[in-house]
TrEMBL record:
The lineage of its organism: Bacteria, Pseudomonadati, Bacteroidota, Flavobacteriia, Flavobacteriales. Gene3D superfamilies: PurM-like C-terminal domain (3.90.650.10), PurM-like, N-terminal domain (3.30.1330.10). Pathway: Purine metabolism; IMP biosynthesis via de novo pathway; 5-amino-1-(5-phospho-D-ribosyl)imidazole from N(2)-formyl-N(1)-(5-phospho-D-ribosyl)glycinamide: step 2/2. It is found in: Cytoplasm. This is Phosphoribosylformylglycinamidine cyclo-ligase. Belongs to the AIR synthase family. Residues 171-323 form the PurM-like C-terminal domain. Its EC number is 6.3.3.1. Pfam families: AIRS (PF00586), AIRS_C (PF02769). NCBIfam families: purM (TIGR00878). Residues 54-159 form the PurM-like N-terminal domain.
């Protein structure tokens, strides 16, 4: 009997089935700027309507949150997570997402699972006026075990050069406003899984995995609603490393983000994790978003308007002088 690619563990037909399942839905994310369709070697996107455009790009994955999804056989939210982790990053510079590409790797491809993951990306792209213009599915037996998947993505956005937000305008007295997260988002799950090994256990009246798998919040509409009305000095996406790592990325020398931690609305699942794992509060804030998915820094004269524009936003601190770039007061 002769050897085939399938006998080595790669089923090309399953890959074709995946494309068939997602092709129509992916096409629905396209607009007039997309000049070709799935199947080409490269994806074409035409740019117009900008005076001095700057492209802003971001790439990320879902991390070990995937393990929760795979073990719970719940795949629909993972695609949203993948898109959100990329798109939320480029929002920090005032960019609008233009297009997104994904990369899906596995040990043995199941077209139903792959399609469910990609359809999550489709949903997120539609909600953010972004085109899913390409991707890659790699079946790699021996590299991944059957049932294992890895997901990553790449997002490109655009902003006028004179409208780039980079934190350089942040000054003393500016207010720090928090936008709530939808939960853990896609960070810290190696620790989450260590403390919560049983995803099926009941938490607040439902299986724990339902709380853990709530997808990463998308901030596109909120951030651009603010940018269109108010001059924003800085934006930070609170991902791995929490407030401690991410806020200093936009703070200039000699300035400090002074934050009153008692004002932060910490999700109950994070409080349970902290208690059950006997984790120090500083470690929690240095690992998880603790309920703050994104922060915006604005002039004090604009703070009330931002709070009015965003129903669930709230003030957590201000910019002061200081050698350290963040001072989290417990």
């Amino acid at each position: 009997m002769s050897n085939t690619y399938k006998s080595a563990g790669v089923d090309k037909e399953e890959g074709y089935k995946t494309v068939d399942k997602i092709k129509k839905a992916v096409g629905e994310t396209h607009n007039s700027n997309v000049l070709n369709h799935l199947g080409s070697f490269g994806a074409f996107y035409e740019i117009g309507g900008y005076k001095n455009p700057v492209l802003v790009s971001g790439t990320d994955g879902v991390g070990t949150k995937l393990k929760v999804a795979l073990d719970s056989k719940r795949y629909d939210s993972i695609g949203v997570d993948c898109f959100a982790m990329c798109a939320n990053d480029i929002l920090c510079h005032g960019a609008k997402p233009l297009f997104f590409l994904d990369y899906l790797a596995c040990g043995k491809l199941d077209s139903e699972i792959a399609a469910e993951i990609v359809l999550g990306m489709v949903k997120a792209c539609k909600d953010n006026n972004c085109a899913l213009i390409g991707g890659e599915t790699a079946e790699m037996p021996g590299m991944y075990q059957p049932g294992d998947y890895d997901v990553a993505g790449f997002c490109v956005g655009i902003v006028e050069k004179d409208q780039i937000i980079d934190g350089s305008k942040i000054k003393t007295g500016d207010k720090i406003i928090a936008l709530p997260s939808s939960g853990f988002h896609s960070n810290g799950f190696s620790l989450v899984r260590k403390i919560f090994p049983n995803f099926e256990e009941e938490f607040e009246g439902k299986p724990l995995y339902e709380t853990l798998l709530v997808p990463t919040r998308l901030y596109y509409k909120d951030i651009h609603k603010v940018i269109e009305e108010v001059e924003v000095s800085g934006i930070a996406h609170i991902t791995g490393g929490g407030l401690y790592e991410n806020i200093p990325r936009i703070i200039g020398d000699g300035l400090c983000a002074t934050i009153d931690a008692s004002k932060i609305q910490i999700p109950t699942v994070m409080l349970e994790l902290e208690k059950r794992g006997n984790i120090a509060r500083e470690e929690m804030f240095g690992t998880f978003n603790m309920g703050v998915g994104m922060i915006v820094v604005v002039d004090p004269d604009h703070a009330e308007k931002v709070l009015h524009l965003l129903d669930d936003a709230y003030e957590i601190g201000e910019i002061t002088e200081g050698a350290e770039k963040i001072d989290l007061k417990f």
